[in-house]
Amino acid sequence: MDSNLASLRSLTITPLEEIEQDEDVQMENSDEFDEEEEEEEEEEEVELKLGFVEKPTNPRSLLRHFFPCKAGGFPAWLDPVNLPLGKSRICGFCGELLQFVLQVYAPIDYKESTFHRTLYVFMCPSMKCLRSDQHEQWRYKQGTPSRSVKVFRCQLPRLNPYYSYIPAKLDGTDRPLSTGVPLCCWCGTWKGEKNCSSCKKARYCSEKHQAMHWNSVHKSECHKLTASDSPIANNANGIGDLTVSKNGSSKATWKEYKIVIKEEWEFESEESEGNSSSVDNSAIVTKYSKTDEAMHSVMDQFEADANNNSWALFQERISRDPEQVLRYCRDPMAKPLWPVSSGRPSKADIPPCAYCKCPLHYEFQIMSQLLYYFGVKNDPDSLDWQTIAVYTCSESCESSVSYKEEFAWVQL
């Protein structure tokens, strides 16, 4: 079985020509995979939450002082001042700034410091970089690997300088206690450290985004802003934190959605009652829960292989609620739902927390169905994944860094 598994893994994780050590690294863990498969068969049931996307009825509900769960659009930064800077916000392969994928509001009630707690996922939209990323995720023991998928954790106590002690009301009257740093007028994501040399009002996170904004809309708007005392008109956050060009932002972000969290058992009950969805579920599952032709041919040859079993279990579980884009459970017993058994991590492949050295535990995974809602095309070079599993510090530790990097495992 080990030889078959090695063959399957070489297909699932496409090796780069310049990296010849990946198969050796993965083979070292093959025995651990077999042991963990046996453990997972005895896994206890845990209460699982599922995330579904929908267009918000009130866009204000996605503002940061309402602590939203959201996908696409702009991140609603929990700490609006001390944003990630430098290399932490760029792809480790192409050097481009990462694009916001989603955020999950996940407070922990037994710790004062985690009264507010949000996890953010960013990634490079290049499929070439994602393939490179999948090789690098095996290599944390060999140093600091380059990544194109990054996760940040931010947490605040209830008493903090940014938000009221009393929850905000969705009536347009409540606002954060303070504004945040100015954000880039093109991507609306990262801190606008540079400003337009002419109008002095438009802010940018990079020279590239400044050039893109200039060629798109700012060239015609700049002289008007120079003669005006008012800031840039379109304020995407509606609270003075963000001035972003709507024309530009549509090219630098994915479609924006609210993430609605529900218990998985609710959908098991609906299924038994014969409820159906108005969305074409077959299109969602078929389009973004697929293996390539090479994998299909191998799976046909090895019908009894673990990958076949994993795929069948995965499809059966997902078919109960195929619109899900997120699976969440912080229970220490919880584990990701892997589409295939090859290309998944062993316990030794998950690094410890970079800040306190405590173990990282699985917390949630992103399903490939999200790409369907983002409108990503189903072309060979388009962004695609099977699942992205996010592991976070088991202690949700504190440090002087406001946005702490966690760990993501990508399965293609």
From TrEMBL:
<protein>
    <submittedName>
        <fullName>Programmed cell death protein 2 isoform X1</fullName>
    </submittedName>
</protein>
<dbReference type="InterPro" id="IPR007320">
    <property type="entry name" value="PDCD2_C"/>
</dbReference>
<feature type="region of interest" description="Disordered">
    <location>
        <begin position="15"/>
        <end position="45"/>
    </location>
</feature>
<dbReference type="GO" id="GO:0008270">
    <property type="term" value="F:zinc ion binding"/>
</dbReference>
<keyword id="KW-0479">Metal-binding</keyword>
<dbReference type="InterPro" id="IPR002893">
    <property type="entry name" value="Znf_MYND"/>
</dbReference>
<feature type="compositionally biased region" description="Acidic residues">
    <location>
        <begin position="17"/>
        <end position="45"/>
    </location>
</feature>
<keyword id="KW-0862">Zinc</keyword>
<feature type="domain" description="MYND-type">
    <location>
        <begin position="184"/>
        <end position="222"/>
    </location>
</feature>
<dbReference type="Pfam" id="PF01753">
    <property type="entry name" value="zf-MYND"/>
</dbReference>
<dbReference type="Pfam" id="PF04194">
    <property type="entry name" value="PDCD2_C"/>
</dbReference>
<keyword id="KW-0863">Zinc-finger</keyword>
<dbReference type="GO" id="GO:0005737">
    <property type="term" value="C:cytoplasm"/>
</dbReference>
